[in-house]
Amino acid sequence: MAVVDREGLVVTANTALGRVLGIAPDRLAGRPVGDLVDLASDARTWQAYREVLSGRQARLNCTRRIKHPDGEWLWVQLTLTPLPEDEQALLLSVKDISARRELQAKLRHLQMHDAVTRLPNRTLFFERLSTALEAEPYDEAGTGRIGLCYLDLDGFKAVNDTLGHRVGDLLLAAVAERLNRCADEAGYARMATPLVARLGGDEFALLVENSTGTEQLAELAESVLKALRAPFDLSGQRLSVSASIGVVERQASGTTATGLMQAADTTLYWAKADGKARWTLFDPERNAHRMTRQALSSTLRPAIERGEFALEYQPLVSMEQGDVRGVEALVRWNHPQFGTLAPNRFIGLAEEDGSIVQLGQWVLATACRQARTWQLEHPDVPPVFVSVNVAVRQVWDSDLVADVAAILAETELAPHLLQLELTESAVMGSAGRPLQALQALSDMGVRIAIDDFGTGYSNLAYLSRLPVSVLKLDGSFVRGFQYEDDGGSGAGHSGRPNPADEVIVEALIQLAHRLGLTVTAECVETSGQATRLRRIGCDTGQGWLYSRPVPPDRISELLRGAVRSVR
Ligand code: C2E
Ligand code: MG
Ligand code: MG
User: Fold this and answer.
1) Which numeric CATH code is attached to 2-101?
2) pTM for the full model?
3) Is the distance from the beta carbon of residue 267 to the nearest atom of ligand 1 less than 6 Å?
4) pLDDT cut 70: percent of the chain above it
């Protein structure tokens, strides 16, 4: 401590102050306080100091960094207050807080870094990101842009689960080291080194401030994938991992930390969905599509109640006689905003959020009512059956058997006029409840068809043991033997289709027949295809050659035409 006069000169100082400042107390007398503790270097502190000296303010409190004569830097906290018993004097106290500051810094480092990898953690990452985004757009040599590689290890959970957390931690630390190396190398080439942070679990981020464009980020992502490609040696364990990276690069102004992270998260998800072990660049259009997905999914349920769905029907034609035996009901969404939507746009969503159950009930009821109406309106022709697509989830999450029984009873439609189409994956490996449901439906007299047959892994012998009676051959088979009969004259049709396809399909049909199944071919578009399908024994065809999916009144017209031709 020291007593100071109104001019700011030391009157007397104690030994402790002498020690802190590294000057003998008697040599401190007469020296200006402002110099001793470096008050002039900061204008605001200086002004406050002057005001305390002149009595306009009661107290000065501040922290200064000063150089000790032995060369060390100290942090000191000082206060200056008037002495109560002496108008002309003030009391200065100077406290060495270096140790406390150091401890604080250490704590901060601990708080801001991850113990496993020693990388900056999520907190520090977001602090740096926010600062970078707040920076003046045309700051000095800045580009006003920002880039981020958001990385996630593929299959890290399996490493943890099979080799234990210790090896998992070693792997994370080793990955961190390689990421740092990539960042350093990128730093040599450019101005600043990207910040590498661990955001949690097996997620890492490389933040590039003042990025120059997507190429720079692509280069960085590429180098990271390359660096991780070499196997890791972890205390005797040789391990290979890959990573998926979402890359976002954009103008810093107008970008928020949350916005950037959301974009990075979506992009990382794409990288994973596209097959992992790759980097993917943020694509606003793909994102817009995702937004529409969200918009669609949030309005699905109310849309069912508002009656925005409609069914179209596509004829199923006998290959031998060429007459319509049945129709497949295909749902459409007349969306008030997006227009008519094909089922591929929303069935998946409806399955994800469960609204497929409600939608499926509506489709089933509408299709059965329609089939019964046709039957009553056209008593002179053999009734057509209706084939309704059923999603896996409907078998699992609803009482499909009860729903079907109720709707058949209500509409008085004969069970054999209803066919249900399930995909291979829905029936494969079905045991317990789904199998019981299929059996009960089949016992009721409802036919079960396997839709898109050939796209999954079904085994025909297995299928034949299930209560299934129809196979719908996936369109890709028919597309396989496209050209031959369409005329060798056909200009541009150079490629002869692979005869193996036809051989396979023929064998498939024969086998199906022997197992008691009938076969419907999807996507019959040309008469050439129809001829060959007929030749190899296919029972029924469906496709544009016969008709596109059409509204119900067009089917009525078709049936009226059939009456005429019968007469
Ligand atoms: P799917 O059951 O295999 O239906 C056949 C699809 O092939 C229909 O597409 C149809 O328009 C199309 N198609 C028919 N003939 C041809 C052709 O000659 N060439 C080509 N290229 N395509 C043809 P759509 O209507 O877009 O339906 C797509 C899928 O959506 C259906 O495939 C079905 O899996 C599903 N789906 C449709 N309606 C429903 C429904 O009510 N419930 C459920 N769960 N799924 C449905
Ligand atoms: Mg179908
Ligand atoms: Mg199909």
Assistant:
1) 3.30.450.20
2) 0.57
3) no
4) 92
